[in-house]
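Running co-folding for adenosine-5'-diphosphate.
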Amino acid sequence: MEEKIRELLSTIVHPETGKNLVESGFIEHTAAAGGKVTVVLRFTKSRDPFAVKIKNQAEELLRGAFPGDEVLVVVKEGGAAPRPEPKLHTTTGGIAHVIAVASGKGGVGKSTVTANLALTLRNMGYRVGVLDADIYGPSQPKMFGCEGYLPEAVREGDEDRILPAEAMDIRLMSIGFFIKPTDALLWRGAMAVSALKQMIHQTRWGTLDFLLADLPPGTGDVHLSIIGELKIDAAVIVSTPQQVAVADVVRGVEMFRNENVRIPVAGIIENMAWFTPAELPQNRYYIFGRGGARAYAEQSGVEFLGEIPIVQSIMEGSDEGRPAVETQPLVEACYRGIAERIVASVMKKER
Ligand code: ADP
């Protein structure tokens, strides 16, 4: 079976080098078992413009050859990525950096950004986990296509550990695995926070370079309890360009900068920054206004990490359980710059 996989992959040629994937030595790992075909491709360049295209080709080919099997092709770039020494953050093992993704209000795309950032960091060679702490609307299980996952508990020494879901090489734990979406709103803050505490401390994350925590929108007491529980290294704030959204960002930044909290803000991401219709690729329509988050970032000394346009495939990817970074090279390129800035910001603080 694995021989057949290699044979199939040898028909895919890298447009730049003219060599196929086997000749290029890009195949790091193949596995086929239990109705699952997994391939890890490792590109030599740190930013290979053909990576996502080749990944799509490989998936299509493998799906055709193994109908009915679940096919996953993971792309990693840039040789072996730097592996920071993990610090012991939670009781559950080695997580090098915990990054909170926050927003002043709901609906700005915080969860979408979290999922796509996670996949981008994975593409850069990092080991990534996602903790979906959005008690008001946990959406990571849907975005990663594992809504039905039932977390299993295992005994390790004297302690119970909860196993995270694994999708697209990302470890995922979500409050959504424990409560029905329709019940989420009925949960009292304190109840949800105590369930979250358990998730934070008992999940068997293993070794991770980055854990992205998708926080609930807003800046209330619940947030402070969650932030207190998670040892967060840096916060990223997502906003849309509307003035009201930007006003909420101010509260978000203040929450992290509060003297009792003191979490470094790695920067602001402006989501849904503009819309470009497919038939007019040169035109950008700033339907929610323009530049508000960037201007605020500059005024308040917070880094502006980048902007993401409104793209139909971003919305569709989240709905279909395959965030757009997995399939759309242009979206991945957009996230890549942002992810690089976040990594640089976190590493800088460490030195
Ligand atoms: P939040 O977590 O802030 O509540 P979501 O991530 O759930 O927001 O996003 C809200 C909606 O907007 C979702 O339907 C999502 O698919 C869509 N969305 C988010 N970002 C984009 C984008 N850049 N382009 C198109 N749709 C987007």
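Result summary
The chain has two domains: 2-77, 92-350.
The longest strand covers residues 93-103.
Job closed.
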